[in-house]
Amino acid sequence: MSSRIEQLIDELEEYIESCKPTLRSSSKIIVNKDEIDDLLRELRMKTPDEIKRYQKIISNKEAILNDAQAKAKALIEEAAAHKNELISEHEIMQKAYEQANSIVAIAAKQAQEILDKATIEANELRTQASKYTEDRLAELNAIVVSAIQTTSADYDKTMGALVQYRDLIQSNIRSLHPMEDLDDLSLDDQGEDDNMGVK
Predict the structure, then answer these.
(1) Of 69 and 184, which is predicted with more confidence?
(2) DSSP element (H, E) containing 28
(3) Residues 197 and 162 sit within 8 Å (Cβ to Cβ)
(4) Cα 83 from Cα 97, distance rounded (Å)
(5) Residue in 97, 98, 99, 104 with CA at minimum distance from that of residue 80
(6) In angstroms, rounded to a whole number, what is the distance separating the alpha carbons of residues 83 and 192?
(7) How many whole angstroms separate alpha carbon 124 and alpha carbon 119?
(8) Is the dihedral of CA 88, 92, 93, 95 positive or negative?
(9) Nearest partner of 13 among 113, 121, 142, 111, judged by Cα
(10) 180-192 burial, b if ≥16 CB within 10 A, otherwise e?
(11) What is the pLDDT of residues 100-121, one digit of tens each?
């Protein structure tokens, strides 16, 4: 089952694919700022939860190791107890001693194997969780950078075109006015420039 971050990334990719291209470029698109903002806002809210979830998986390494150590200790204690029982029987003391040492050696080997396996599994979990988180964040960063670049380029083009139209309109207006009205027209133009600067 995919995480909510993966679902959101899929939704972002589907949304970008569904956007219409600009008139002069097939590689640039027109996006709805509110929809992009909503998806990015949810991603920002979900990302910390996802990271916490994988951090919890990493923290389970300690629990795995503690459990392995407890099992190893129990095996050694059981072996030692069995050894003491065998040694207490005088008739078979020598044989019991050999058997006890063998049991202790086997138990120690099993305990080490459990610890080694638990360490490997915990390290694999940590590596997988870190890699997954890094990959998701890299995908998210690429999408956000692409959206910023596309939006910025479209904005610059639009503003450039508007400035050209404004200059042409003002030039035409000036050609219709006598020279004595140019001072008043300049004041009006200044007001229009100020208004265009307001966002």
Answers:
(1) 69
(2) strand 25-29
(3) no
(4) 7
(5) 104
(6) 98
(7) 9
(8) negative
(9) 142
(10) eeeeeeeeebeee
(11) 888 999 999 999 999 899 999 8
Q: What is the pTM of this model?
A: 0.37
At residue 30, the 3 state secondary structure works out as: coil
* CB-CB contact of 107 with 71 (8 Å): no
User: Whose structure tokens read 């009205």?
Assistant: 181
35-39 LR contacts (CB < 8 Å, sep 24+):
36/12, 36/147, 39/8, 39/11, 39/12, 39/15
The position carrying tokens 């939006």 is 151
Q: Tokens 């490997």 map to which residue?
A: 120
Residue 49's contacts (CB-CB under 8 Å, 6 or more residues apart) are 4
Task: Give the whole-angstrom CA distance, residue 86 versus residue 98.
Answer: 10
Distance CA(161)–CA(69), nearest Å, equals 72
The CA–CA distances, whole Å, from 180 to 102, 177, 187 equal 115, 8, 13
- Going from the C-alpha of 181 to that of each of 165, 185, 187, 193, the distances in angstroms are 22, 6, 10, 18
